[in-house]
């Protein structure tokens, strides 16, 4: 059997590696998967993308390395929640264009850290953004200033997002801002805009980099935090995704937007063990590439880039 697997792997590699239109590293992994008896193989090529399903809520967690960027689409309306870092702005523009997106109905910059809004200026420059939301906090970074400049050039007003704000994303879905609750925090991460989207019987919580203080504010607020899918706060940092938040949200699934071998050690073992204890199914950009979550309102389906 071992000899057969070696021969099979060699045959697959000799055929596939002659193609110039695909990523060789992905094919090596795919060939090994065949040899190991794995039935389903996701082969990613340069011109392949995760397709949106018509008439369903599509949530694409774009692999922007150690950053965050999420594209949401429902019935032709598009929302962008964060846009990755400065170094991935070309990727963001390309990904939006690959999905034939010309207009963005709602763009949200969760908080002014570069790994979340670094690509937002390029998005504003290249697309027709109708509404832009950000928390009421400023920084003096060039990244933040670039977003302000791009918005000014387009005549795009920035609307302050805070707990209690309702965002219009069409009649079939509700979008509520749950945080920030306070007007002042010591940690810039706690200003993160946290949004709950409810589509029929399913819900999604987008969290930015909200840390423990903001999480506790939400838990104590009395708002219904339950969501079947949650964006793991702060890339799986130990300062976020507390047990109390998980108990309030009760998610079935989580997506961790994190870069491979990042210097922060995200996601931490503490967070992963906490998710395992709660029996939450985990998806990760560093392991699976971009992740598409789709729901018809009754259940979530997931497809990954690799």
Mean pLDDT: 88
- Report helical residue fraction: 25-40%
Largest sheet descriptor: 8 strands, mixed
Sheet-strand content, in percent, reads 15-25%
Q: How does the helix and strand content classify structurally?
A: alpha/beta
- The main sheet orders its strands as 8-7-5-3-2-1-16-17
- Helix-strand topology string: HHEEEHEEHHEEHEEEEEHEHEHEHEE
Describe the 3D structure.
The chain is an alpha/beta fold and 306 residues long. 29% of the residues lie in helices and 23% in strands. The chain is built from 10 helices and 17 strands. The protein has helices at residues 2-16, 24-35, 89-98, 114-117, 120-126, 142-153, 212-221, 243-249, 269-277, 285-288, and strands at residues 57-61, 69-74, 77-83, 103-104, 106-108, 128-129, 132-134, 158-160, 166-167, 174-179, 194-199, 202-206, 229-231, 253-256, 281-284, 291-295, 300-304. An 8-stranded mixed β-sheet has the order 8-7-5-3-2-1-16-17. Strands 9-10-11-12-13-14-15 form a 7-stranded mixed β-sheet. Strands 4-6 form a two-stranded parallel sheet. A hairpin with a 4-residue loop joins strand 16 (291-295) and strand 17. It starts with a helix and ends with a strand. The model is unreliable at 1-47 (pLDDT under 50).
Task: Lay out the secondary structure.
Blueprint: H1 2-16, H2 24-35, E1 57-61, E2 69-74, E3 77-83, H3 89-98, E4 103-104, E5 106-108, H4 114-117, H5 120-126, E6 128-129, E7 132-134, H6 142-153, E8 158-160, E9 166-167, E10 174-179, E11 194-199, E12 202-206, H7 212-221, E13 229-231, H8 243-249, E14 253-256, H9 269-277, E15 281-284, H10 285-288, E16 291-295, E17 300-304
Parallel strand pairs: 3-5, 4-6, 5-7, 7-8, 12-13, 13-14, 14-15
Antiparallel strand pairs: 1-2, 1-16, 2-3, 9-10, 10-11, 11-12, 16-17
Helix pairs in contact: 1-2, 3-5, 5-6
């Amino acid at each position: 059997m071992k000899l057969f697997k070696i021969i099979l792997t060699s045959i697959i590699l000799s055929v596939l590696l002659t193609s110039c239109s695909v990523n060789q590293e992905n094919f090596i992994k795919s060939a090994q998967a065949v040899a190991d008896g794995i039935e389903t193989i996701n082969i990613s090529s340069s011109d392949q993308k995760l397709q949106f399903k018509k008439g369903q809520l599509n949530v694409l967690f774009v692999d922007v390395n150690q950053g965050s960027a999420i594209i949401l689409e429902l019935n032709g309306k598009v929302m962008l929640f964060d846009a990755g870092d400065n170094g991935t702005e070309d990727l963001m523009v390309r990904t939006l264009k690959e999905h034939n997106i010309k207009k963005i109905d709602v763009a949200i910059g969760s908080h002014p850290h570069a790994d979340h809004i670094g690509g937002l200026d390029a998005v504003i420059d290249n697309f027709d953004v109708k509404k832009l939301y950000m928390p009421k906090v400023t920084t003096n970074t060039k990244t933040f200033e670039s977003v302000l400049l791009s918005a000014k050039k387009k005549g795009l007003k920035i609307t302050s997002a805070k707990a209690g704000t309702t965002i219009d994303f069409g009649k079939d879905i509700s979008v509520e801002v749950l945080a920030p609750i306070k007007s002042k925090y010591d940690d810039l991460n706690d200003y993160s805009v946290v949004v709950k989207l409810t589509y029929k019987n399913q819900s999604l919580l987008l969290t930015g980099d909200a840390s423990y203080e903001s999480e506790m504010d939400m838990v104590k607020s009395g708002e219904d935090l339950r969501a079947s899918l949650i964006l793991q706060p702060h890339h799986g940092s130990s300062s976020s995704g507390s047990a109390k938040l998980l108990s309030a949200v009760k998610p079935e699934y989580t997506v961790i937007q994190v870069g491979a071998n990042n210097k922060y050690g995200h996601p931490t073992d503490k967070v992963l063990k906490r998710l395992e204890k709660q029996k939450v199914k985990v998806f990760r950009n560093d392991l699976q590439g971009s992740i598409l979550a789709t729901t018809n309102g009754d259940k979530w389906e997931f497809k990954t880039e690799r």
